[in-house]
Amino acid sequence: MKTVTCICVFLFATFSGTLIAQTPQYRLSFEITDENGAGIENAQISITPCSCGGITDSSGFLTLELPRDTYTIVVSNIGYKEYAQQIILNREVLLQIRLSEQEQQLSEVVVKAKKVNDNIESPQMGVVQLKAPELKKLPMALGEFDVLKSMTLVAGVNNAGDVSNGLSVRGGSLDQNLLLYEYAPIFNPTHLFGLISVFTPDAVSSVDLYRANIPSRYGGRVASVLDIKVKNPYVDKFKLEGGLGLLSSRLSVETPLIKDKLMLQAGVRGGFTDFLLPLFSERLKNTKARFTDGTIKLVYLPTENDQIFFTGFYSKDFYQLDLISQIENVSAESNQYDFSTLNGTLKWTHSFTDNATIKTILVGSDYTPKIIFPEIEGDNEIEFESAINYLSFISEFSKKVDTELDYYIGVQANQYKISPGSLNPGTAIDISAVSLNKETSYELSGYANFNWKPTNAFSLSGGLRYNHFTLLGPYTLATFDEMDGSITNTEVFEKGKVVQSYTGLEPRMGISFSLDKNTSLKASYARVNQYLQNIYNSTTPLPTSRWKVADPNIKPQIGDTYGFGVYQNFNNNAIEMSLEGYYRDTRNVLTYKPGADFFLEEFVEQDIVQGEGQAYGIELGFRKPRGSVNGWFNYTWSRSLLRSVNERLADRINNNNWFASDYDRPHVFNGTINFENDRYNTVSFNFTAQTGRPFTAPNATVDVDGIAAPIFLERNNARLPLYHRLDFSWNVHFSKSKRNKRWENDWTFTIYNVYGRKNPINTFYSQRVDFSENAEIFKGSPLGAYEITLLNSPLVSLTYNFKFQ
């Protein structure tokens, strides 16, 4: 660790020493794209009165340095309409200009301006913002960009392996991350055992990940927020695009329904992979998996100052596993998982002026996982169902006072209705029907946030969020004996009666101080209260985990996160470097007791304990965002630790000593490089390596009636081997046909896990019968340890992508 720190300091000092003294000139950068967002090479830029300019590179970029003045800019290229604009250059800016084709008329030309060195001046820490074109550059498993896989290449973001049901951000558990898809929460974000995410690829516009001073408009998760936005169909003509692949296929359409008034964007994707799974692993020969997801968005423009948006999302998965044959007293030949998500978002935005707007949002979300147990003999199926029903109302007013100050204020009201589970035995006579009581809770929040830049060198972001959480009846509350944990009493609350209330005040703050135009220091702090928690005892993506709201026995998690960072840009912002450190202290973290089984458990408090959590680390990152060769790499050193704080011996884990959490990864390296030497070919490589995840190994064995039974005294006392993987993708893009300029297509060839690394996802122990088998490995041990590996070979995919407009 000291060596890494010294290297970082040395690199920073060396690079800082090469900086050139400031000049009175300002950097003016251009990004010229076509209607599809692709960079236009050799676009001519003429600037007066300086009689200067230039041509764009293969990615559509050009950067100049000019003195402060008023300039007229003219952009032209063969086949496109000429574009002209006048600007006052008094700061460093990036002009993003979208050109329209010569023979076509657009209702508007989209021009955006933002600071080139926003990573230096912004007071926001730990934020990653990626647009769809950047996501599409990353090599992925199925020939299409994937939100969650892209995020695992970011410093401090991991998962539990090739199959995992979400993200771990800076050592946090899966339920400590708020995943929003157009304002609606996603409780199960993956398809195909966690290999890909549920978000319809062609519908995604941008992804924002907040890991440090989370803005005050977000609440409810202590580790991070992943905010995914669906693109707006601001189109005046029909557009069709999609892809045909080995593992999944997709189709999307954008079209105006009423010219300049009502527009539609809709996309759907499906995967039917049963016949391919045995090729990847022998263990998957009896496994089935299929999925579908779809996103629809309508934009209505009733007046010049009003916009109304509706977004609908649907996701459904079905898969079958024969790895588990019995749960409780239910014996089945396989386990089938059938779960779906149905979300809807209605948003109305009203602009009072160009700098003052109010948005009102209604959100509904239904998540309904189901487990089906086909009985070994007969046609009867036993079904276990649970559900999360979520409603939310948000109203937020925002205003940009001037170039130095902007703010927003808002309110949010959430309702959670959780159905923990019900068991329908069908025609089985030896199994009783079970229906656990539902939980109904409400969370009312008010929040405010501001961004202020009083000087050129100093920026401040501050926010405050207030929460009031209430759990209402009907509810049955249990009281437990402090000595042996048995239930001593139960109290029944009638419908509408308050069971428990919690309040929380959450300050948020970020500070940025620029040493010069290329170097800045940042610090941040955020407190978040989490009232909805997930209980699980497996990192695999099976929807058997249980969601639970806070009550008198289970208190809400409270997380305090501190951060500090150094940021440096080089070579006219062509290279970005960051060094961030963080520390998060979390109280009331949920974890399961040894031997816990909370399937159909009425009082789940008997199987869990609440303790403390610590997560801290240092993240070093380099990024080259533009040019024919671009990409990034990062290295993270971190720890994620837990401990119980219980007096009763049976409730202690590791005797109340600190132990590694399931997401403790001391060393992680990610590297991505893209080669874009011409407009027709893009070749990408991604490499990741990380310390293997912790697991619990037996400390000893005891003989019970001739059977060696393992004894587990410590949790997560061993680790899986080092995880590493290389991915490759090659995109061959065909320019528009001279005969049909409305048709565009490309091929994407990907290899996930290029060299076929057998990364284990888990380890299990089995009684040894034949001691001569594998004797050189296990010696005289009565137990044999075996690793489970999902992917035993490279995962190859070929996808044909097309666009028509």
Automatic annotation (TrEMBL):
Primary location group: membrane
Keyword line: Cell outer membrane, Membrane, Receptor, Signal, TonB box, Transmembrane, Transmembrane beta strand, Transport
Gene Ontology terms: cellular component: cell outer membrane
Pfam family, one: CarbopepD_reg_2
Leader sequence segment: 1-21
InterPro entries: Beta-barrel_TonB (IPR000531), Beta-barrel_TonB_sf (IPR036942), CarboxyPept-like_regulatory (IPR008969), TonB-dep_rcpt-like (IPR039426)
One GO MF term: siderophore uptake transmembrane transporter activity
UniProt record, GO biological process: siderophore transmembrane transport
Segments crossing the lipid bilayer: none
Topology in membrane: Multi-pass membrane protein
Top-rank taxon, per record: Bacteria
Domain TonB-dependent receptor-like beta-barrel: 319-754
Location of the protein in the cell: Cell outer membrane
Protein name: TonB-dependent receptor plug domain-containing protein
